[in-house]
Inverse folding.
């Protein structure tokens, strides 16, 4: 698949002010399909194909499934898209071989909340907080700068390019599943562009149907069309979640439609925006259910927390962003105290990286900092999080939160093969002395050697496959230039 060329139907019209300035090779210019830049000669033939067996041989295996366990050295046998067996010295017959000596083999990471439409605006708001507090340094804030200004000028094509590039970038860092929370549904065409990009990425993706703005916006009423058109089958990489933001006047309709369509309902729950009273009223009314995904949960009352726990709702935390952008103190310990096992999510790349290693280190150091401060003061303190705990947050708990744990989140025979091979021989890790600790406390994206999604190799020996990333980057830069120009924001690499 030529992923860099798959968005032609979302391209701006020629000769209009919206035309991309990406050069002759761009989708908008209608050039020939580019050839992949990655040499694939070392990739064994047929991996992921139905009936083809593949043996990932001789790695250090962390299954994240207590019933399967961990192995200092073992094999993972695949049959097509599924895991068939795990154990030492498996007999695989004529299976294709992926050598994993020196690798940590584990389930792919899961990001339960990522605004992928903002990829073209990476690092644009590195110092921003959520809302303007009146100080000069807060003039360029997220709510006014991104949601009320820049997001308003997105065309379907801009949605497509950012969604696709952001998805590939996360594949490169080992994230095999994402919930895309793109508040960019200004028209059905914007929604279609987002779905098309998620599909083109060949990654397991949960399409979050959230709000949009303007006369052409059909949220939440377009949900039925989207589900019927794109999500009628359960046997695919794409699934759907309904956005149900309680700060919007139409949230009751969104929740009703989501539940009529049997979709999980996800929403940001942030004290900065004064949501606690509404959240409490919903808690008292018994509105919450196991279909809810609550993102952030900062500043909520004990009543709200207990109601979320009693309902079996899921909590997604974006620890570095929550600390950085003034959402409030990340409520990791409150979640644990209420018996909730959270997942981890990256939130917005306009402010911080979307790699899982940043999220895991942020979570473990935050919880231990608070616990250690209590210990030093001679007070009782909660159990310290371990490296394995946050690995579980970043894999199995994410799958559970997105209702995908029957398919992914652990290396379990029968599940689909969403697998990462992490190189433990590299300079920043060797020698390997503790597998969970090495992944959480030492590794970064440079250690992500090979990535499989549903048995298909998406990254091989350090390089992404199936796409002209150089061309796609040019499209992303041209989209960035258009968005800044349309929003009346000057490009300034040293903005203060």
């Amino acid at each position: 698949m030529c992923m860099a060329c798959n968005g032609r139907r979302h391209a701006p019209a020629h000769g209009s002010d919206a035309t991309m300035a990406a050069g002759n090779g761009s989708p908008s210019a209608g050039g020939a399909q580019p050839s992949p830049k990655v040499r694939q000669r070392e990739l064994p033939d047929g991996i992921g194909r139905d009936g083809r067996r593949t043996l990932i041989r001789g790695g250090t295996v962390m299954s994240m499934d207590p019933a399967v366990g961990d192995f200092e050295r073992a094999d993972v046998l695949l049959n097509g898209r599924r895991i068939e067996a795990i154990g030492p010295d498996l007999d695989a017959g004529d299976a294709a071989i992926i050598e994993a000596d020196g690798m940590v083999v584990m389930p792919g990471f899961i990001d339960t909340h990522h605004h992928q439409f903002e990829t073209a605006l990476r690092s644009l708001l590195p110092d921003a907080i959520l809302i303007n507090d009146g100080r000069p340094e807060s003039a360029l804030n997220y709510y006014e700068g991104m949601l009320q200004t820049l997001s308003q000028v997105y065309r379907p094509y801009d949605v497509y390019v950012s969604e696709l590039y952001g998805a590939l970038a996360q594949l490169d860092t080992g994230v095999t599943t994402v919930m895309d929370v793109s508040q960019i549904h200004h028209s059905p065409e914007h929604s279609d562009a987002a779905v098309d990009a998620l599909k083109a990425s060949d990654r397991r993706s949960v399409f979050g149907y959230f709000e949009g703005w303007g006369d052409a916006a059909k949220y939440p009423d377009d949900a039925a069309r989207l589900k019927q058109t794109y999500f009628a089958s359960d046997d695919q990489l794409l699934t759907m979640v309904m956005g149900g933001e309680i700060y919007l006047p139409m949230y009751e309709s969104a929740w009703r439609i989501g539940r009529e369509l049997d979709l999980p309902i996800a929403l940001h729950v942030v004290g900065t925006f004064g949501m606690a009273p509404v959240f409490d009223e919903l808690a008292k009314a018994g509105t919450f259910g196991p279909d809810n995904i609550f993102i952030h949960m900062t500043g909520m009352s004990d009543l709200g927390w207990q109601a979320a726990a009693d309902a079996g709702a899921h909590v997604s935390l974006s620890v570095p962003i929550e600390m950085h952008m003034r959402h409030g103190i990340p409520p990791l310990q409150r979640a644990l105290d209420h018996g909730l096992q959270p997942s981890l999510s990256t939130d917005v790349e306009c402010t911080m990286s979307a790699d899982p290693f940043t999220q895991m280190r942020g979570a473990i150091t935050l919880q231990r900092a608070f616990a250690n401060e209590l210990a030093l003061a001679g007070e009782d303190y909660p159990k310290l999080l371990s490296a394995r705990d946050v690995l579980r947050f970043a894999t199995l708990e994410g799958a559970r939160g997105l209702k995908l744990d029957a398919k992914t989140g652990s290396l379990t025979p029968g599940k689909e093969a969403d697998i990462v091979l992490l190189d433990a021989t590299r300079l920043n890790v060797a020698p390997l002395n503790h597998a969970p600790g090495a992944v959480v406390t030492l590794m970064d994206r440079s250690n992500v050697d090979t990535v499989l999604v549903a048995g298909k190799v998406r990254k091989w020996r350090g390089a992404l496959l199936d796409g002209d990333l150089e061309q796609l980057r040019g499209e992303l830069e041209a989209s960035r230039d258009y968005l800044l120009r349309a929003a009346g924001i000057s490009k300034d690499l040293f903005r203060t």
The longest helix spans residues 356-376. Confidence is low (pLDDT under 50) at residues 14-41. The radius of gyration is 22 Å.
